[in-house]
Amino acid sequence: AQSVTQPDIHITVSEGASLELRCNYSYGATPYLFWYVQSPGQGLQLLLKYFSGDTLVQGIKGFEAEFKRSQSSFNLRKPSVHWSDAAEYFCAVGASYSNYQLIWGAGTKLIIKP
Amino acid sequence: DAGVIQSPRHEVTEMGQEVTLRCKPISGHNSLFWYRQTMMRGLELLIYFNNNVPIDDSGMPEDRFSAKMPNASFSTLKIQPSEPRDSAVYFCASRSGQGGNEQFFGPGTRLTVL
Predict the structure, then answer these.
(1) Taking 80 as the threshold, does the pLDDT of residue A99 lie above it?
(2) Do B105 and A44 touch (CB under 8 A)?
(3) Rounded to an integer, what distance in angstroms lies between the CA atom of residue B110 and that of residue A105?
(4) In this predicted model, what pLDDT tens digit does every residue of A39-84 receive, in sequence order?
(5) Can you tell me the distance from the alpha carbon of B12 to that of B55, in angstroms, rounded to the nearest whole number?
(6) Beta carbons of A53 and A92 less than 8 angstroms apart
(7) Most A CBs within 10 Å: which of B33, B34, B103, B104, as the mutation test of the A interface?
(8) Residues of chain B falling short of pLDDT 70
(9) What gap in Å lies between CA B8 and CA A85, rounded to an integer?
(10) Which of A71, A114, B50, B106 could form a disulfide with B6 if both were Cys (CB 3.0 to 4.6 A apart)?
(11) Selection from B103, B92, B58, B37 nearest residue A107 by Cα
C-alpha cells in the first residue's frame, strides 16, 4: 500500500539557518509529489509540486525540493529560514490509479528560534 | 478569484444536534474533497466528488456523516447527530481537471461538539 512518512514531528531551527524537512514515500510507480504548508488557523497552501522532468523543483517563499527516486524521497529545503516560516508542513503523494487522490504525511511542525 | 469558501468558520454545538458545513469550490474546478483534521489522526480524506458525483466515500466515518454536491458550485457535509468525537477542523478543497493538479484548500471550519 502507498504511504508517506515524515519522520520528524517537530523541528526547531534558528532564524537564518538552513532547513531540510524529510519526506519518504512508498509507491510502485513514479508518483506525483507535493509539499503544502499550513500556518496556524489557516488552510493548506501549496509550496511546490513534482510531476516529471527536473528532479529539483522550485516553489514559493524560497523553498525547493528534490525528488530522489533511488531513495524514495522528496525532501524540502530552504537555505535561510525566516520567523514567518513557522508552520506545519505536509508532504503528499498522488497516485494515478486513484485519480490522484492525495496520500498525506503526518506533518512536520517547524519552530523558529529567534 | 475568491478561492475556496467555507462556512461557517467556527461552529459550536451540543451533542446530538445536526451540523451542516458548507463549501463553495473555485469556479471551474470539477473535483471537490472534504477532509477532517485532528491532532490524533492528522488529515483524513472523508469524501471525494468528481463532476458533482461522489467517487470515493470510504473515509466517511459512519452513517452519521453525509455529503452532497447538488451543483458544481456548492457542497455540504452534514453530521447528524453530532458527537464530541466529531470535534475537528473540516477542510474543503477543490481541483481542476484530471490528473495530478494541485488541490486548493479552504480556510476550514472548526467544529466543537460539547
Answers:
(1) no
(2) yes
(3) 21
(4) 988 899 999 999 888 899 999 999 999 999 999 999 999 999 999 9
(5) 30
(6) no
(7) B103
(8) 1, 98-100
(9) 27
(10) B106
(11) B37
The answer, for B38 touching chain A at a CB cutoff of 8 Å, is: no
SS3 A83: helix
State how far residue B41 is from chain A, nearest Cα, in angstroms: 8
- Residue pair B89/B109 in contact (Cβ under 8 Å)? The answer is yes
Please, how many CA atoms are within 13 Å of residue A105, restricted to the half-sphere of its CB?
30
Going from the C-alpha of B52 to that of each of A2, B4, B91, B94, the distances in angstroms are 27, 16, 17, 11
pLDDT value at residue A51: 86
Q: Retrieve residue B76's grid coordinates.
A: 455540504
Q: What is residue A38's three-state secondary structure? A: strand
| A34, A94, B18 from B109: Cα distances, Å | 23, 25, 15
Alpha-carbon torsion (B59, B60, B63, B68), positive or negative: negative
Question: Which cell numbers hold the place of A53?
Answer: 522532468
B14 neighbors B81 (Cβ within 8 angstroms): no
pLDDT on residue A54: 87
Question: Which residues from chain B sit within 8 angstroms of residue A36, using beta carbons?
Answer: 105
